[in-house]
């Protein structure tokens, strides 16, 4: 298991893994067009790379049907200088992105449409963490890694367990997850992710000024963060999603054997197969009473 | 070295006297080498040259073995894990615990690893509680009551490490039996005894006590630090626990950490139950409200009970107004990887990579590292049985030991076998 | 090593000390804007980016609000640096000061962020250039050149081939590093020894700085030189660039840079070109404190023996500074750290800390994995031997006090100073301690005054 590394570069050298939400269902309904969004993000990536020669940026696309790496500054800047221009970054990123969206779209044709048009955040988050582990393994000298989620799609409750797993793994290896949420409702998953891992969560008021938000909040390296006024969480949504209907709930029933969450009372736990003897109301109140005794 | 040598000898004789018992007659430089055993990491190759052992392959094969043994248990249908555990850790503080066959002494080693164990325990078993009991001078004391905060246990333990007198298993078991009888029926009752002594000095018939424990469904496990004892073995056999004896410090650490993951629940041990719980939201930083637990106005983030909207300061707790059990959902989610384990990946012989039909993926799907060894020789890699994505060995370990997600399965909508079958 | 920072800072100070017009001219060049941005402290970088798209001046008060109370000292450092480099322009209003980004700097940086960086010049197509050296060859070349230069710098006799630097130029580099008494072999000065123990980037900056300040005397514009050097660091390592794209001044300079190993010059059938090496591209990196470290080669054992896996003469010379080199194999130097060798080093002005950091930074990768990389008993002993030299010294002395007036006191202290006998004085309380040797003289003097 990875622990916090001991020797590092100078404090402000950072590796930013950006998770880009490319879900077409979201962008078609958003006030900011995907192209505008991209131009903000490209400038942001450029400025991260400008800040320090050793800074590194990796972009992973979070699609509707798949996720993939679309840019890695450690590879792309060294390669392909045929046209002699540094904006290889932009061109290679855009090219990969186009290929990716095409493939992503192809996959969706085979699929009946789901009820919530969420993107596969759990997948890209897992990939980002694998990448960061590789950076940790690469030796004592490596940049400070962090993850930035640029997410617009709503939470996909069926990803709940996977996203939580990823969050805890990030917490264990001290990788902060920053999140910038551009959708309509706030995302409970991203709020929790940033809260648990010590990252910053922000929901910009005005998407036209996205670049300024990105620069002001998310460009700060981990070292400078200890001196800066950054947005504080305006409450964290700690709701969970139930295992039976994938609803997001704030009150529910927990199986005492496996801790699965259900929104209604069941006779049998669908996860571990335990049979619950008593009726719902009794069980709840009885256990409440019993719990009180040992604690007082 | 003319100058240094003379000084060393003079200085050494003075210090030797008080250091002797701890470090034997080794010099400082000798000690570093005995600890590291650097010669053991060398290997002879075909031509008789010495090479460092390829630790990576070795490490990975060890890990595969571990994974296989775990998954073979897990495949036995749906395993029920006892996730709500009430565990008493019994620490033997009798004369025997001050022996120095473990360096610097048994009790120091025990304390060090109990600390690590308690932290790991709470990480893996949210909602569970631990209590500490010590045995000293033939009497068992309750050091800390059952509780959910690792810090308070560790602090209490570190202050009480003197050893003296005899040890008594029966006294400890009787004491714990009394405490554990009060816990709710869905909780799993467990005792973990770290036993240094080679005897037990009991006031009555210990066999009766063992039967009593068996009746109250307390699972007793023992880790011995000296030699195997019949009575411990008997106790564990009767109550369904595990009895192990540590060979050395690292073995002891391994043995104690084995008790951190939740044990497979035996259906009759605890009655399954549905518990009603609330997942409160965290209020904004700097907001001000009246806290229901301290009955005073407080500034700063608190949590709001979803049923009665009262404010509480900390989780997990019970709402003092409506009595609802309040937990933070991330707390619960820490244990979900036990419920939805990812299948072990299949090892693929390297020759497949050069197969012309199979030129799909040359990089690890997780970290993008090339699966080819330096010199374009194909290396060892693994494949997820569900999504058929390829991963490098390092990612394999990371995915199974820490992440508990398969990045390949997570990034494809149509192939989500683990979660979709819940519906 | 603290020296590294000072050197790097001095270079930026040099940039900062350029007249305003020249600075503005410098900022017309995109690469310089980028290099300057990179050289700033982290917080300052953040401010620049944050203010990039704000066109109105920002009051210092609102700027202060960006940081929390703990960071106010860092905030001040950042703002001072920005003003010093004229990146921030101060606008004084009636009551409060406001800041605004330098407009040239601002436009250039905006351009850079939107369009991405543009290469300073196009590399030559591969069909024109002959076989280009691989990156490893280039690295080897650069290090070879650099070591050759260093060897020549410290002892001109030892270098196998001499660089084309004129002896007057060489003497300028040696100024401050070597001290030559008449008819004597030049000896390294304190700073010279320290110079040798620095890492390559720091040494490079020292030399470049000397080079730039010297060129001023020869009528080349400092700003041009700085611009060219910074620009060079944005070229791609290993690519060939035509010499025709350079101005005359630059062409003259590139020959010197080739001697330092910053670029490799090659000649084709028609054209000639230069290939920047890692040393050149790392120039702007070294402006920040993070140093790219090369692989170490030294193993120190607990018995004070020292093994250096290196065939370089320079390394041998450096090790000789503080250890007794016992024998040399083709790729291995074996030595021992002894009291005598260390006393030698201390006499030359090298401190124990410098030796220890050198050993730690150049530790062989195998031992660098361990902590500590250098055995503790060795580092402790090095420090102990150093403190041995700083023992209390006993001087028989006499203390004088209760002077009748300040005049008498001052006259007495002057008298003692003239006779080199004043050890300590406290003018406020009118007390002084004087060496015993001049006690008699002193008494005479005081009596005479009465």
TrEMBL record, chain A:
Keywords: DNA damage, DNA repair, Metal-binding, Nucleus, Transcription, Transcription regulation, Zinc, Zinc-finger
GO molecular-function term, one example from the UniProt record: zinc ion binding
InterPro entries named in the record: TFIIH_Tfb4/GTF2H3, vWFA_dom_sf
Domain of life according to the entry: Eukaryota
UniProt KW Acetylation keyword: no
Biological process according to GO: nucleotide-excision repair; regulation of DNA-templated transcription
Known function: Component of the general transcription and DNA repair factor IIH (TFIIH) core complex, which is involved in general and transcription-coupled nucleotide excision repair (NER) of damaged DNA and, when complexed to CAK, in RNA transcription by RNA polymerase II. In NER, TFIIH acts by opening DNA around the lesion to allow the excision of the damaged oligonucleotide and its replacement by a new DNA fragment. In transcription, TFIIH has an essential role in transcription initiation.
Keyword Zinc-finger: yes
Family: Belongs to the TFB4 family.
Gene3D superfamilies assigned: von Willebrand factor, type A domain
Localization in the cell: Nucleus
Complexes and interactors: Component of the 7-subunit TFIIH core complex composed of XPB, XPD, TFB1/GTF2H1, GTF2H2/P44, TFB4/GTF2H3, TFB2/GTF2H4 and TFB5/GTF2H5, which is active in NER. The core complex associates with the 3-subunit CDK-activating kinase (CAK) module composed of CYCH1/cyclin H1, CDKD and MAT1/At4g30820 to form the 10-subunit holoenzyme (holo-TFIIH) active in transcription.
GO cellular component, one term: transcription factor TFIIH holo complex
Protein name (Swiss-Prot/TrEMBL): General transcription and DNA repair factor IIH subunit TFB4
From TrEMBL, chain B:
Listed GO MF terms: zinc ion binding
Keywords attached to this entry: DNA damage, DNA repair, Metal-binding, Nucleus, Transcription, Transcription regulation, Zinc, Zinc-finger
GO BP field: DNA-templated transcription; nucleotide-excision repair; regulation of transcription by RNA polymerase II
Record bears the keyword Zinc: yes
Protein name (Swiss-Prot/TrEMBL): General transcription factor IIH subunit
PANTHER family documented for this protein: GENERAL TRANSCRIPTION FACTOR IIH SUBUNIT 2, GENERAL TRANSCRIPTION FACTOR IIH SUBUNIT 2-RELATED
Pfam families, sorted: C1_4 (PF07975), Ssl1 (PF04056)
Assigned protein family: Belongs to the GTF2H2 family.
Domain of life the protein comes from: Eukaryota
Principal location: nucleus
Subcellular location: Nucleus
Zinc finger boundaries on the chain: C4-type: 305-322
Region ranges (Disordered): 1-27
Composition bias, Acidic residues: 13-24
Cellular component, GO annotation: transcription factor TFIIH core complex; transcription factor TFIIH holo complex
Cited InterPro entries: C1-like_sf, Ssl1-like, TFIIH_C1-like_dom, TFIIH_SSL1/p44, VWF_A, vWFA_dom_sf, Znf_C2H2_type, Znf_RING/FYVE/PHD
Keyword check for RNA-binding: no
Domain VWFA: 86-275
NCBIfam families in the record: ssl1
TrEMBL record, chain C:
Pfam family, one: Tfb2
Underlying gene: LOC111281169
GO cellular component: transcription factor TFIIH core complex; transcription factor TFIIH holo complex
InterPro entries: Tfb2_C, TFIIH_p52/Tfb2
Name of this chain's protein: RNA polymerase II transcription factor B subunit 2
Its biological purpose: Component of the general transcription and DNA repair factor IIH (TFIIH) core complex which is involved in general and transcription-coupled nucleotide excision repair (NER) of damaged DNA.
Residues in Transcription factor Tfb2 C-terminal domain copies: 380-447
Compartments reported by the entry: Nucleus
Keyword terms of this UniProt record: DNA damage, DNA repair, Nucleus, Transcription, Transcription regulation
